[in-house]
Amino acid sequence: MQTLAIGKKKRIYAVAFSPSGESLAAVCGDLFVRTWDLATGTVRHSAPTVETSSGFDLVYLDENRLVFSGTDLRIWDTAADQWHTISRGSPWGRRLKVSPGGEYLAEVDQTRSTDWTAGGGLVLRTTTDWELLPPVPDGSHTTGGVAFSRDGQLIATGHMASVGQRVRTIGMFGAGAMEYTTNDYDYLVRVRTMPNGVVVRTITGWQQAVAHLAFSPDGRYLAGTAGPRLRIWDLEANREVALHKRGTKHFQGLSFTADGRFLATVSNDETVRIWDARTWAEHTTFTWQIGRLLNIAFAPDGLRAAAGSDKGQIVIWDAE
Description:
- A four-stranded antiparallel sheet has the order 1-27-26-25, with no helix packed on it.
- The protein is built from no helices and 27 strands.
- It has strands at residues 2-5, 12-17, 23-28, 32-37, 42-48, 57-62, 65-69, 73-77, 82-87, 95-98, 104-108, 123-126, 142-148, 154-172, 176-193, 199-203, 210-215, 221-226, 229-234, 239-245, 253-256, 262-266, 271-276, 282-287, 293-298, 304-309, 313-318.
- It has 320 residues and is mostly beta strands.
């Protein structure tokens, strides 16, 4: 086990392994973006960023380039220590994914009401010139979940859709009850072909916003989290094969191992839970005692995993 720390008890917003697995990048709560040399545990590169209420994310484009979302969408060439702006502005809770072949960048925001727009929904760009692809059908009102299949042929995104209104009642002290109406939503996942964005599967009934998604390496299963629920969908059979609810703690991240045998999740506590991808039962747990875990990632070779906490620490461990 290896532990990296930033020296302040500030949250780690996002972690990502480089394609070689030799470096780890993180967006840190002290408003620095860092990369570490995992062989020595020392910081290779660091750069200040600007605070934003919209959140942060980052993904590796290649060994020396990171795409970073903060106040703007930018690319950081760590070898040259240069930043380049891709687009201005910061949609609420923007999340990023690069396609497995590196050709496309997917962006989604985190809408929580269809009465207002957090951003552009699902946005796709080419990574050669950062030009936007044509808008995809039904791409609006994303909820944060986004994932590419390993072969890059599919992309899955979480969405919310208004299905009318619901009458609610609230008790008023000394004045009886008061009725009011609120919007009623369905939360769903759309699976699309790449790069045209045509919807080939819609999975409904998630009950809450789908914040995290991951395809199994063989492309058969799609795992997603919605609040405290973990749901597994068999894409070949088009049916749910597992549903787990862990109290009131919301899942904060999930990732499959490279061989597809296990799924790892973190749930805003100090424990990583490993699920057996054959039975979808809980296989084992790791409690690292570095604070509440907020994100998780596996190295491309599948040999190591990393999780960032709310206390400025990142734990890295052997996955086998």
